[in-house]
Amino acid sequence: MPVIIRPATRDDLPTLLRFEQGIISAERPYDALLKPDPISYYNIGEMIDAPDAIVMVAEIDGELVASGYAKKRRSRHYTSPDWHAFLGFMFVAPDHRGKGLNRLIVEALTGWARDQGLTEIRLTVYPGNDPALRAYEKQGFQPYLTEMRLGLEDD
């Protein structure tokens, strides 16, 4: 089955909204701070239209099976480079996992980032999400910064 990697269109939104809920469901075990459903992480339609972002999808036999986005972001004022591509919305349909689709999406997003003149890509992964960590490390990503939190309970 040939895989087509292409930019998403607004016609893809119904499937992409389902993908987003799949991401949220998968990440709930790692994040006790997520509000109860229904929630949304992204304005996917806005990202599809944005000049500083791209949403890519993988299609097999006319069916969308994976997604991801890259967005141009300003880096912290005290770090280099000044701008980087931030990846998110990484999803592969359960029946298509293990086929290298995430890698193909990341390659397409990397190409977009290069075309934008960006020299670095960043993304976030929940601690404990070992399959995601391994997948990104296999593609050359390295841990950079760990964000920590302390909840303050009402007394």
UniProtKB/TrEMBL annotation:
InterPro entries, per database record: Acyl_CoA_acyltransferase, Bact_Acetyltransf, GNAT_dom
UniProt KW keywords: Acyltransferase, Transferase
Domain N-acetyltransferase: 3-155
Gene3D superfamilies, A to Z: 3.40.630.30
Acyltransferase in keyword set: yes
UniProt name for this protein: N-acetyltransferase domain-containing protein
Organism: Henriciella pelagia
